[in-house]
Amino acid sequence: MFEALRKKYPRAELHYLVYRHTLPVLRNNPHIDKVIAFRREEHFFYLVNAVRLQKYDAVIDVQATPLTALVTGFSGATTRVSYEKWYTKLACNHVFSRSMQAETEAGAAIEKRLRLLSPLAPDFPKNLKPKIYLQNREKRQALEMLQEHGLNPQEQDLLMISILGSSQQKTYPPMFMARLLDWIVQHTNTTLLLNYIPAQENDVMAIYNLCEKETQERIAIDLYGKNLREFLALTSYCKALIGNEGGGVNMAKALDIPTFAIFSPELQKANWNVFEDGTNNVSVHLRDYRPELFQNKIQKELKAENMRLYREFKPELFQEKLLEFCQNHAS
């Protein structure tokens, strides 16, 4: 959205109100003039004040929560835009439904957000790919980390594995993930890096211990990004990222790293499979292979049955598709 705004209005002052923990993703972005960061626990009066003092001409609320609607409604901006909810209708003068069919490979998630810019001008693009900006220093430090672990990305192919999802509900079952890693090692000559943080070590080791010995030997278990920027820099040296759909997948796409994403059964793949082209970005969902399990099920039922459905999502269902992906991107 910021890239689109910058191209359309090169002299505009563009600010971004975000949760503080998301700042690393925005670092070095040339299209953002100022970031207003806040924590979830901060009182909404602080946010209302922080936004109102800026005297914005336009405020675009992409979250559409009751809190962000209040901030938008009291902003004083002439143009106030959000997604359609009963409370955003009270706060905004332009609201848009989240229901839409994607018209480009950018997918619904991207097109929905770019559509929020339409009250400002009628000719914004529908299709722009998010980007993350790494500095040469960060790339150099990541290369040094790899070399310290005996890895050289010029001589061997590396795969980043998104081994855990953002929650248990979005995490491929450990036994299945271990079998998948065994299968990757058996069919490629790659070394595997794992995306995790120290607080997740026990969950990661549970999967690692389920893997075959040969697989364990090909996993750089002690090499991981200590923070988000380190993860991004390490990922930039990988041939692809494979694993649970989520932030890691989307960040890899923003680095132009090919991705193979495994969706949680409760999620609607069409809402989040951005820039999927069947070659560089591929995703799989249980619905692709067992559609009868989803017939006449509403979202609430799918969420309640998510873990049962996960048990039906055996890696054998999509191994051939993963093999084709690996053959395209790794040795």
UniProtKB/TrEMBL annotation:
Lineage: superkingdom: Bacteria
CDD domains registered for this protein in UniProt: GT9_LPS_heptosyltransferase (cd03789)
Gene Ontology annotations of biological process type: lipopolysaccharide core region biosynthetic process
Residue runs in coiled coils: none
Keywords: Transferase
PANTHER family associated with the record: ADP-HEPTOSE--LPS HEPTOSYLTRANSFERASE 2, TETRAACYLDISACCHARIDE 4'-KINASE-RELATED
Name of the molecule in the record: ADP-heptose:LPS heptosyltransferase II
Natural source organism: Christiangramia flava JLT2011
